[in-house]
Amino acid sequence: MHITDLLKQRKTTVSFEFFPPKTEKGASALFEEISKLAPLKPSFVSTTYGAGGSTRDLTRELVLKIKGETPIEVVPHLTCVTHTEAEIYDILEAYANAGISNILALGGDPPSNTEQYDRSKDAFRYASELVRFIRNFKDRAGGGQISDTRGFGIGVAGFPEGHPSTPNRLTEIDLLKAKIDEGADFIITQLFFDHRDFTDFCERCEIAGITVPIIAGVMPITSIKGMKRMTELAAGARIPAALLRSVQRCQDDSDAVQRVGVHWATEQCRVLLDQEVRGIHLYTLNQSSATRDIYATLGIRDSLVVA
User: Which residues make Cβ contacts (< 8 Å) with residue 271, sequence separation at least 6?
Assistant: First the structure.
């Protein structure tokens, strides 16, 4: 099912993001966490794609396992970096044949172990080009394996706090608009810690004529190490002073740090729900406890908010 169809069915979708494990033991642990979250009946889950496509095979294995062994709609990430057009085609065909209905199309980060990576070798330089390719995709059987005649549902990334490589915020929205114009159906934002950044982002999208649904990305802080790591992964992520003070007050107590982080994320979600956000996408860091705590506090059932 296309994510846009889910968005039409539900006032607000709630979804989760996982990243592929690097070992067999990690895979087993991840599926234990997924099994704990499955009863929450998320609208969908997404799976990440490492820098430079470093976890492309693991992503594909995880996607197919979720699709084959759970009832959850899964949205795999797909990036431009280090890929030829033929490789992208083969990945799309494999997903189509497995019944995958949606793709999150991203520009992607260059390989972490390669300095001065030459992007001219990539088939697509920008996510908008990847969106166009996915929109025009037909598998070798003529598209017959894609259950929806519209082809793949396509999501793209948005950046409420700004994209680190595009300091000009006007240009940033122009680039986002280009992805929508090429056929993207919905937006999932990068994490943010101040709901006002998200509200401002949505207003700027509206001014630019971007009318597709915007899903808010929320990541609960669960540890000091995790907080530092997320600011590295989401370059430019701004930790509000109030949150930073709260974390520092209890930094020697890991359980207390997680409680602070979950409380902050829960309040973010509460405000977003009050503002009738189209969707909330929780970055789980492959851990179920924080997500389950947020669900319980907000009174969410089957990805719906209980009035």
Answer: 195
Residue with the two structure tokens 């069915």: 9
The reply to whether 130 falls in a domain is yes
Q: Number of structural domains, the chain?
A: 1
pTM: 0.91
Catalytic residue ranges? 17
Q: Which domain holds residue 120?
A: 3-299
Give me the long-range contacts of 29-33 (CB less than 8 A, separation at least 24).
Answer: 29/286, 30/62, 30/286, 31/65, 33/284, 33/286, 33/287, 33/288
CATH code for position 88: 3.20.20.220
For 234-253, the pLDDT digits (tens) are 666 789 999 999 999 998 89
Residues 116-171 pLDDT 10s: 667 777 889 889 999 999 999 976 655 445 666 678 999 999 999 888 777 778 88
